[in-house]
């Protein structure tokens, strides 16, 4: 379990992390989401003691990370996959880590196998592709067989196969009862991976809820309605306080009225319904809606050239 209370980090005048309080629980993947510069990496660095909070505190299994007896056995982290000595082989890199942290040598082969690097383990990591580097970083995080795992943007720059592999790995680790915290600015990715979400913008917590709750709370739920008389139904719905928009195939998209009410109205006016189905906004839409005001650098709207 990771627990933060009033966690704050200032760099001069700039507040990078602003009074964050949250709990990351075992047995699920917690997605840590926010636009660029929201404070995700700074928060993660504070969790593992690489940055000191200006105020507040964060603990790992009830203690500050620096006070843990065997930190790598409790929390494994992938923070910057490039922070590896390029002249060393993957095997050597992991072996050094294992030896300096009192971990059994056999773990090196186990984690190499787990991340699929056994074949290239003796080659210098300098020649590794981005995906291989990510796998090596993940192997290092898994080395101490920790109950808590933390990954900062692990899918950045990976190909679809690599993304799928990481997604399945996170889920498998959570299914084993481990605590998994993973940061991303790719909402579509989290939609398929995370159970719980912590969403931050400009260092502040915007949402702390399940993926489902996040979508429900932050997206206007529209209903798709196909009927025997769309124009008549649109008029009836408008009179009852609903809003309608035509869909390209002749259906109506209705908001601000529940499905039951639309069904009743159609029945009362003798309009036959062929379809009445909820249209759920994607997590991407909900996230952009929510963080619109907290994006650090916003592109100017594109102007048409005259
Ligand atoms: N060492 C530092 N000195 C000054 N400002 C910093 C430092 N580290 C981070 N910041 C600032 O703090 C804010 C949060 O940065 P952080 O890297 O934690 O965000 P992030 O959510 O991880 O973003 P990204 O997805 O772009 O990595 C940014 O405005 C950043 O410029």
From TrEMBL:
> Domain of life, per the record?
Bacteria
Recorded source organism is Dactylosporangium sucinum
Q: Which family does it belong to?
A: Belongs to the ABC transporter superfamily.
Against Gene3D superfamilies, the record matches this protein to: P-loop containing nucleotide triphosphate hydrolases
Please tell me whether the keyword Metal-binding is annotated for this protein. Answer: no
Give GO MF terms, alphabetically: ATP binding; ATP hydrolysis activity
Which keywords are on file for this protein? Answer: ATP-binding, Nucleotide-binding, Transport
Q: Which SUPFAM superfamilies does the UniProt entry name for this protein?
A: P-loop containing nucleoside triphosphate hydrolases
Segments crossing the lipid bilayer: none
Tell me the InterPro entries matching this sequence. Answer: AAA+_ATPase (IPR003593), ABC_transporter-like_ATP-bd (IPR003439), P-loop_NTPase (IPR027417)
Q: Where is the ABC transporter domain?
A: 2-227
Report the protein name in the record: ABC transporter domain-containing protein
């Amino acid at each position: 379990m990771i627990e933060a209370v009033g966690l704050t980090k200032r760099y001069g005048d700039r507040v990078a992390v602003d009074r964050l309080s949250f709990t990351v629980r075992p047995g699920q993947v917690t997605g840590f989401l926010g636009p660029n510069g929201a404070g995700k990496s700074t928060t993660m660095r504070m969790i593992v003691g690489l940055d000191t909070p200006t105020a507040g505190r964060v603990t790992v299994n009830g203690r500050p990370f620096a006070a843990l007896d065997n930190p790598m056995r409790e929390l494994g982290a992938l923070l910057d996959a490039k922070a590896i000595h390029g002249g060393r082989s993957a095997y050597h890199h992991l072996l050094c880590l294992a030896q300096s942290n009192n971990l059994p040598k056999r773990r090196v082969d186990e984690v190499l196998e787990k991340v699929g690097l056994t074949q290239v383990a003796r080659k210098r990591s300098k020649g590794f592709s981005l995906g291989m580097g990510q796998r090596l970083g993940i192997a290092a995080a898994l080395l101490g067989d920790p109950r808590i795992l933390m990954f900062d943007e692990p899918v950045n720059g990976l190909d679809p196969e690599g993304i799928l592999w990481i997604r399945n790995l996170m889920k498998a680790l959570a299914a084993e009862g481990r605590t998994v915290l993973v940061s991303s600015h790719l909402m579509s990715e989290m939609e398929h991976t995370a159970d719980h979400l912590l969403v931050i913008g400009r260092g502040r917590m915007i949402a702390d809820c399940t993926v489902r709750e996040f979508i429900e709370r932050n997206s206007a739920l529209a209903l798709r309605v196909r009927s025997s008389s769309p124009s008549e139904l649109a008029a009836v719905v408008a009179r009852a306080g609903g809003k309608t928009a035509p869909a390209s195939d002749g259906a109506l998209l209705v908001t601000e009225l529940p499905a039951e009410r639309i069904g009743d109205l159609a029945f009362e006016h003798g309009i036959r319904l062929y379809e009445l189905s909820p249209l759920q906004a994607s997590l991407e839409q909900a996230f952009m809606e929510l963080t619109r005001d907290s994006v650090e650098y916003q592109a100017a709207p594109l102007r048409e050239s005259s």
